Amino acid sequence: MRYNLAVIGAGPAGLSAAVNASIRNKSVIVFGLDSPAISKTEGIKNYLGFGTISGAELNDNFKKTLEGHDIEKSTEKVQQIYAMGDYFAIILKGDKMIEATSVIVATGIELKKDLIGEDKFFGKGVSYCATCDASFYKGKKVVLIGYNEESVEEANYTSEVVDKLIYVNMYKENPELNDEIEVINGEIPVEFVGENNPTTLKFKSGKEIEADGFFIIRDSSKPERLVPSIKTDDEHIIIDNNCRTNIRGLYAAGDIAGRPYQINKAAGQGQVAALDAAKYITLVESGKFTKEMW
User: Fold this and answer.
1) Measured between alpha carbons, how far is 79 from 94 in angstroms, rounded to an integer?
2) Could you give the C-alpha distances from 145 to 74, 101, 136, 220, in angstroms and in order?
3) pTM, rounded to two decimals
4) Which residues, at least 6 apart from 83, have a Cβ–Cβ distance to it below 8 Å?
5) pLDDT in tens, 118-131
6) DSSP secondary-structure letter at 113?
C-alpha cells in the first residue's frame, strides 16, 4: 500500500507533522509509541498556552488533536527506509513493506552509547531485528540484549527458533520470558569481540559470553542504520530550514534533527516538515517536480 506521507515517530514532532499533513488532505501513516520521555515528565512549564502541565496530560492532549483526522497509526517497528526515486520503501518486521511518497523521520534520539564494536559488526553478526534474522541461527546460540518491552517479545520468538537464547536484561525486573531462556541480570554489556564476526560479548564486570549471533533491541537506532546514505552530524540528521535532508522527499524533525531537545521546537519542526512535504507530494504526484526543486 502507498501513502502520501509516512511519519516515523509518535512524539510531538511526529504528531504535529501528521496533523498538518492530514489537514492538507494527504494520506498519512504514523509509526511509533508514546514518547516515554514526555509521559514520565512531572511538570512542563514552558509549553505555550498550558502553564504548568504534566507530561502525561500534555501527551494526551497531543493525541486528542489527532481525533477527527484520517491518520492511520501503527506500533510496528520500522527496520529500514530506502529511497526509490519518487517514493520510499519502508521495511517492517517479517519483510513486510509499505510505500510512501514522502517520509518524515521524527524518532527522537537514542542517548545510550553504542557498545564497542557494534558499528563494526553491524550486519555481520550484530542485528537489531530478531524476528527478521533469527532464522539464520537455527541450532545455534544467541545473545539478545533487551532494553524495552519489544525485546521480550523478540526474545520469546527467537527462543523457539534457535538452540539456546541468553537474554541480557536491561529492561525491568522479571520480564515475562519463556522458561528455556537464560536471563542475565545486573550486568552491563560494553563490547563485542571478534575478527570478521563477533564471537564474544564482554561486560563491565569482566564477565564474557560466547555466542554465534547477537541482537540488540532498543527504542531507536542510529539514523544511518535506519536510512542508508542519510547525512548526519554525529547522532543528528542534517536538515535545512525546511527540515529537508540530503535525500529528496525525506525530512527530519525534533530531537533527531538536533538540539535543543525541547517539545516546543519539536512540534514546530514537525509542522515545518509537513508543510513542505505536502507541497513536495503534490508536485511529485502531479508530475511537476524537477530535481532542481530540492
Assistant:
1) 10
2) 24, 34, 18, 14
3) 0.84
4) 227, 229, 247, 248, 249, 250
5) 999 999 999 998 98
6) P
